[in-house]
Specification:
Elements: E1 3-10, H1 14-26, E2 32-36, H2 45-48, E3 52-53, H3 60-79, E4 91-95, H4 100-108, E5 114-118, H5 119-126, H6 134-140, E6 147-151, E7 155-156, H7 159-172, E8 176-179, E9 183-190, E10 206-213, E11 216-225, H8 231-235, E12 245-255, H9 257-263, E13 276-278, E14 285-289, E15 294-298, H10 317-331, E16 339-350, E17 358-362, E18 365-369, H11 379-390, E19 395-398, E20 402-405
Parallel strand pairs: 1-2, 1-11, 2-8, 4-13, 11-18
Antiparallel strand pairs: 3-7, 4-6, 5-6, 9-10, 10-11, 12-15, 12-16, 13-14, 14-15, 17-18, 19-20
Bound molecules: flavin-adenine dinucleotide.
Flavin-adenine dinucleotide (FAD) binds next to α1, β2, α2, β3 and β12.
Length: 423
Amino acid sequence: MERRYDVIIIGAGISGLSTALHIKEENHDLSILVIDKQNSYGQGNTGKSAAGFRDIFKTKVNRQLASTSIEFYKKIQKSLGFDIGLHFNGYLFLVKDKSPMDAMLQELSSGVKIEIVDRDEIKSSLNIDYELEPEQRKLMNLEGYDKGYVGKNCGIIEPELLADYYFKECVKLGIEFDFGTTVSGLKVVPTDPLDYPGEPFIWQRKKIGSLQTNKGTYSGDEYIMAADVYTSGLLDKTGIDGHERPKKRQVFQVTNDRIVEMLSESVHTDEDIMPFTILPSHGVFLRPAPKYRSMWIGVADDLARDFTMSEDPQPERDFYENSIYQILTSYCKNFEGASLTGSWAGYYSYNTADMTPNIFKELNLTVISGTSGSGIMKGDAIGRIAAAVFSGKEKAKLYGNLEFQVSDIGVNARKVQMEQLIL
Ligand SMILES: Cc1cc2nc3c(=O)[nH]c(=O)nc-3n(C[C@H](O)[C@H](O)[C@H](O)COP(=O)(O)OP(=O)(O)OC[C@H]3O[C@@H](n4cnc5c(N)ncnc54)[C@H](O)[C@@H]3O)c2cc1C
């Protein structure tokens, strides 16, 4: 039996949930269905995220997407009283004087809340060394640091709780969900069919007519693609470019007594939690996970990390032991002998052109792709922009009434520079 809706959204991660909510808020009469192949919402990359958030980005567009979303998340937690595990424990970047990162953060400090922290203060609270042994430095291409920059409108969040908020709001407004439904293809059909074999012909106007799934055919007037790294695979046969490529990303959970002590060392914030810390070399980050009395370690490694994808990505213990552990322990002895108590892997959906999300419409399909490793912290703005694109509006109103020209992150009239702060 064919099921029909005004709007069908593929993907119940943060992007699909936020988009569903913002479309429905503006269009109460539309019937909206969100489908996902998992058995619940937020089980894709949303649930695998390291879930840090920051308003520190090189480009204005990314700063706007993140800062308005952070403001909205603050409202969810503080005014609406829905706990999403939001903590403003800061992001700490450890940098060398006069390095490109130093210059970038200094430039940004006029627009976002950043404070400089003395390296001795960092050493005494977090035990992260700023002078490394020369041999180690040379062999592993490591650098020391001269100071830290702490971003104050930054911190950690719990993505499953955030997804929970959006899901519950969607259900309240009457949005339907269908889990365990896997889309295998989107069918392009002529807008005015002639019922000739071989349609649609090149001269016919076209639209997405239906979705093929394991539960049969679903039809909608409009569709939203919010399937993250599965976007290109689903769109390839339609001839629509997804403009995104996957890269595996992993999180390793480690702990020992010294790490547990470190977790509560705040650095220039009011929270009793250490900041999300980015080591000076190779992008290795420490994400405090006080709820699990552990540290989550990750890195967005680039060269030698391929662009392939599998249905069930596995974390690589060798990668932790041979690459990450060596860097960690060179900087911070607290990690020596730490137990690896958990690990998981997902993918970043990269927009390799400028590392900034794409939101565009082709036919009756609105596509969200290329969240590039920061889709949680930009999730609310992404949903508001996708809702505006869906409605054919030129401008989206982001939280706090900021007007955003939607074509700036579309495909045809895109206006974004390369984002250099990808972690
Ligand atoms: C290890 C890791 C660390 C990260 N750290 C951060 C961070 O610190 N901060 C941050 O902001 N972001 C981070 N991210 C990125 C962030 O998780 C993503 O940008 C964000 O979750 C994307 O949300 P989404 O809704 O677009 O995708 P997803 O959450 O992946 O949702 C897509 C949904 O589509 C469904 N789907 C896919 N194909 C089909 C199909 N054929 N049929 C039906 N359903 C389908 C999937 O099941 C999934 O639920 C991290 C990602 C990873 C992997």
